[in-house]
Amino acid sequence: MKESRFMLRAIELARKGELTTQPNPMVGCVIVKNNTIIGEGWHQSYGGHHAEVEAIKSCKKRFGAKQALKLLQGSDLYVNLEPCSITNNTPPCVDAVIRYGIKRVVCGTLDPNPRINGAGITLLKKAGIKTAIGMLKKECEALNRIFFINQKKARPYIILKAAQSLDGKIALRDGASSWISNSLSRQDTHLLRARVKGILVGKNTALSDNPNLTMRLDYKQLGLKKNTALPQPIKIILGNLTDVKSTKNLFAKNAKVIIGSRGAGLQKRNVEHIQYLRKNFLEEFMQDLLKRGVTSILVEGGQETMNAFISNNLFDELVLYTAPIILGKNSLSGFNSESPIKIKDASALKLQKVETFNSDIKATYFAGTLN
Amino acid sequence: MKESRFMLRAIELARKGELTTQPNPMVGCVIVKNNTIIGEGWHQSYGGHHAEVEAIKSCKKRFGAKQALKLLQGSDLYVNLEPCSITNNTPPCVDAVIRYGIKRVVCGTLDPNPRINGAGITLLKKAGIKTAIGMLKKECEALNRIFFINQKKARPYIILKAAQSLDGKIALRDGASSWISNSLSRQDTHLLRARVKGILVGKNTALSDNPNLTMRLDYKQLGLKKNTALPQPIKIILGNLTDVKSTKNLFAKNAKVIIGSRGAGLQKRNVEHIQYLRKNFLEEFMQDLLKRGVTSILVEGGQETMNAFISNNLFDELVLYTAPIILGKNSLSGFNSESPIKIKDASALKLQKVETFNSDIKATYFAGTLN
User: ipTM score of the complex?
Assistant: First the structure.
């Protein structure tokens, strides 16, 4: 059996925290002695124990404290991300790793956080612990794309979502766009909403659709522990809202709303308006969102907004639902960006996953690199 | 175990003839005694034995002629299509079924050929054989869509093929369309070509691209017996060709070409020109193709041609390769048909299969019904 199976298991464990760890990364940890797993754990939610500590705890629980101490001594630890060297909500993990006499630490990637980035490894080495970095690096990076983008690009992870006909149309000429995708696809978009900290639409979409922009799945549908409620994503509007009546669903239940626009903005309880001077303030707006804890956003339209993100090359993931219909020449195209001069100039996305919902196809593409 | 597994096996066997049975249907046959398969076979190629006879032969080969006769007596026979009651290249299958004392015949569907359609079953019943029709009917119909369309609509089975960007564009404004899809996708289109008896393009595509329109896979790549050569599909042009020089690849190696157009047409060896009086002669052209043995065609473009088929609702399958690029607002849309008034009015295709070739997605849709 290959050693990488332990890292695969760490990744599998890490993923259990997908909906609850942001702004932290997902981390899973496996401790191995004589080729056998003696402890495993994952970072379950922001503020909670880190994966390494959870793995040590699980070893104690399984073997009893005394036997666990013996087993941990001289063991190997696999973790998708470098153990942290700083105190945030919890003491640094490297301390625990050193204290329990772990002999070797294998990480998928370094921590991209500039305050750590290698510092954890340095401390481990100083304590005489063997280290290896880069096992299943690509998989470990893909797992924590949100965290890597946050750290490296100082902005939220940006997911663009669109539902289109198979000829690339998102609406009829009159703007009608309901029921392009089927009910299973529409249900699935709530899973996308559950993955993010904010949902963004342009002001035109806000005004014409009066959307709720809420995530409407319960803990069962999300695969969470009983009665766990995920906080609703923050609602984010690109462009100022003047007419509050026709967007009243946005403000229902005192939901938190952030608006970014040029010029003066809407004043309202629970609404934060961020004003920009530059015409193209999108990147700045994104950076300001991260400063406010919005580590990931889902951009749901409409066409102009979508194309602003595409034209500025400001997106990390594109999720495209394609319905099995042709909407023809008079309908609205979903993408309206400038064309490349040559086909080879068009920047290619990377297809990550294809799913089907009856006759709808959901394609998930990754854009750009993490560096 | 369910009885339907025998029909599934018959379908599986039938499919082995996919590339070689046209204009005949694919047929597989399984003979069962005491819940055990004692013989199986399939129609291997046009002109060869039918599946029922192959299954009886296989039983004899396996058990010896004497023992086979005993076993076949009182056995059950599963076949995806009604056994034929007429002599074409071979004697009617019902004769063999009766002669060998088979007790019960289970068919997936009746034969849609109006000269048979139930006549085979009637003969079996008259001979005192039990019959059951409709087991895995949908699967059996899907297997032989080409044959059903030929029989019921008196025209070839029509597959539309397009390669587009994820925003539904098939070319840049200057017409450049090479390298939208990747090399694996382009290789795969030769498998599509192998499935059909004709490849159709519009005259503009013929003139601008000077295509070969040949199928360039050998027996190994097609999964055929050693040194089997599939006949090349006939090349079919919609609209008259005036300039023969810029389309010389079409006529290479004396390939057979059929041209359909209004007005007088090109006179050339191996070229058949069919002249039409009506402006919209597409359906008539299709019927004339079937009369010439073209049971299936692949329509490869360009945009005008594609939309003629879509607007006339003349297609049975749409194969769409989607590349992970955005070609933007100045590029050419693949589909240019009239838009529906409401989204619900758009006729929905049925997604049949999704495959991926690196970051390209291949989606196969079925259109319309078989009735």
Answer: 0.89
pLDDT in tens, B43-65: 999 988 999 999 999 999 999 99
Q: What residues have CB less than 8 Å from A282, skipping those under 6 apart?
A: A238, A308, A309, A312, A314
**Cβ within 8 Å of residue A324, ≥6 positions away:** A166, A359, A360, B348, B349, B350, B351, B365
DSSP secondary structure string for all residues of A167-194: TSEEE-TT---TTSS-HHHHHHHHHHHH
Answer yes or no: are the C-beta atoms of B320 and B164 closer than 8 Å. yes
Alpha-carbon gap, residue A73 to A92, rounded angstroms: 19
Backbone torsions φ then ψ of B144, nearest 5 degrees: -110, 40
CA A320 to chain B, closest CA, distance in angstroms equals 9
Q: Beta strands B257-262 and A28-33: pairing type?
A: unpaired
Burial category of B12 from C-beta neighbours within 10 Å (exposed 0-12, middle 13-18, buried 19 and up):
middle
Predicted model pTM: 0.91
The Cα–Cα gap between A215 and A233 comes to 7
DSSP bridge pairs for A355 = A362
- Name which of A350, A354, A321, A310 is nearest A141 in CA terms: A350
Flag if B326 and A333 touch (Cβ within 8 Å).
no
Contacts of residue B327 in chain A, CB cutoff 8 Å?
339-340, 343, 346
Give the Cβ contact number of residue B288 at 10 Å: 18
DSSP strand pairing (A169-171 vs B36-42): unpaired
> Is residue A52 annotated as a catalytic residue, yes or no?
yes
For A177, left (φ over 0), alpha (ψ -120 to 50), or beta? alpha
